[in-house]
Amino acid sequence: MALSLARFLRRSFSVRRLQLTDCRALAELHRDDFARPWTDGEFESLLGDDTVFGFAAIEEGHPASKPCGFVLARLAAGEAEILTIAVARQVRRRGIGRMLMDAVLRTLHAERAEALFLEVDENNAPALALYRRLGFRQVGHRPDYYRDANARRSHAIVMRRDLR
Ligand SMILES: CC(C)(COP(=O)(O)OP(=O)(O)OC[C@H]1O[C@@H](n2cnc3c(N)ncnc32)[C@H](O)[C@@H]1OP(=O)(O)O)[C@@H](O)C(=O)NCCC(=O)NCCS
What we know:
Blueprint: H1 5-10, E1 13-17, H2 23-31, H3 40-47, E2 52-59, E3 69-76, E4 79-87, H4 96-110, E5 115-121, H5 125-133, E6 137-147, E7 153-162
Helix pairs in contact: 2-3
Bound molecules: coenzyme A.
């Protein structure tokens, strides 16, 4: 049944650690946003990797509901990277992306990591705005790194945030 408008506007969200049982939902969210979607199996092998961790955003009061956003990160030898992040279109601009990134940053501070890196498409204005707001700065770029569904190429911007 469709949500009433009142309940839709009232919804609030929290984050929890990703679990192996989330893989199908993660693949569905990923497919909506990326030209080369990752499969359930790819998410399973990532979550089975000791260096990889992540968080799901869940509607508060509905702990068994499907994630409406998630982030995956890798931490190795004191340096971390964001592997991917996505929030369902219908709940964007409600602070979920920021909440997911904050959960990663808190984990990395607790682990005493030195820096967090990520790559983002030069044309991805929402993601660039989110990362800049969180204190990431451009440290490089990879020419023609991405190719969209129409074979158009774009650069990746490499960003870094110091954690110490
Ligand atoms: C990028 C993404 C994860 C942001 O998620 P979100 O939940 O909408 O982000 P938030 O609501 O937490 O936004 C936090 C801040 O980021 C910035 N921001 C986010 N979306 C923005 C947009 N469309 N335009 C401008 N600024 C934006 C704003 O500063 C915002 O704070 P504000 O709402 O108080 O102004 C989401 O747009 C998404 O899933 N995009 C598709 C997948 C993707 O591109 N992933 C990144 C790959 S590198």
